[in-house]
Design brief:
homodimer, Arc Repressor Mutant, subunit A, Tetracycline Repressor, domain 2, 72% helix, DNA-binding transcription factor activity (chains A, B), DNA-binding (chains A, B)
């Protein structure tokens, strides 16, 4: 690295992503990232305190990149059932796109995520809250029954796991998967909407 | 093997299960099974035509062992919602028990199942039909809405994947998993039962 370019956390994370892409998840270490940047590992340690923190940051960045469009859907007005469908469709689309576009990188991040449990838990909590916000607005205006938005938000995400949970990525190429999703969605909407 | 004990398909499958248990899924071959039985591979080939057939039989036997209690629940009389819950509870219990009792063997069979797609598909079809039978009886006596039993049977199984699909086995130790299941189940029953 030329001495006039300051080392920042963002540059470290960009280098870490590059290392993971080129050499796999086991190379997401401070030493390997320092080597890629042409700096000492001491210089990297000034910004990232440990290998565990580096992995948390890397997984956090990977997950965060998917979130702005999902938050935007929740922030928009409109009937709750349609917004809920749009939100879950967008979640499914971003996961499938990542798995299809670069399956090796997708697998690498899955391996890293297994070691970044608190980051993943925070992501799941935010997803539950987004779904709960939409369900809550539907409960308020009567398009949904009087349910607990957080409990039912979690239930909707769990019940659609097959379509967005990375553990099911191998099934996403199945030509029958969209029909299966439509059946699940109908059942969930029958459960949420007043009879 | 003493010459007076006839070689049967059942003995071959028992030996194959023993080989998998001791040496892992990659050893589920005709040659390894023949060695365990102390017979020639030609003798085994008289009963099993290929390595692929051997694996299909082994996976089929592993899956079949779970089915009699599930079929018995469907055959019993009683209100459809309770029978449906009993059926899905039993499915979840048998998968969790297998994953907990011998996680190495569970993982071995998961690897084998990936190569025995037609056997797994037949198992999934039977599970869908069992759930559809219960839903159909509930539609008939009015405890469930007028839904397509097969489509909604598939939807119920898909929506409960987190709790019985082997891809989620790592999550089954989560102390919150039963609460999560209860929320999903409530949502599905709200969807199936008349408002």
């Amino acid at each position: 690295m030329p001495p006039d370019v300051p080392l920042t956390r963002d540059r470290i994370l960009a280098a870490a992503e590059d290392v993971i892409r080129r050499f796999g998840p086991s190379k997401a270490t401070v030493v390997d990232v320092a080597r890629t940047l042409g700096v000492s590992h001491t210089a990297v340690y000034k910004h990232v305190s440990s290998k565990a923190e580096l992995r948390d940051l890397v997984v956090g960045q990977w997950v965060e990149a998917t979130m702005p469009p999902l938050r935007a859907i929740v922030a928009q007005p409109g009937p709750a059932p349609q917004r809920l469908r749009k939100l879950v469709d967008a979640l499914i689309a971003v996961k499938r796109r990542r798995a299809a576009d670069d399956s090796e990188l997708f697998t690498a991040y899955r391996a890293l995520a297994a070691d970044a449990k608190s980051v993943v838990a925070a992501h799941v909590d935010e997803m539950i809250n987004l779904v709960a916000t939409v369900i809550g607005s539907g409960v308020k205006d009567g398009t949904f029954r009087t349910v607990d938005p957080v409990a039912m938000g979690r239930a909707v995400l769990v019940a659609t796991s097959k379509f967005h949970h990375p553990a099911h990525a191998a099934e996403w190429g199945d030509p029958a998967i969209d029909a299966a999703f439509n059946d699940v969605w109908q059942l969930l909407m029958d459960g949420l909407c007043p009879g």
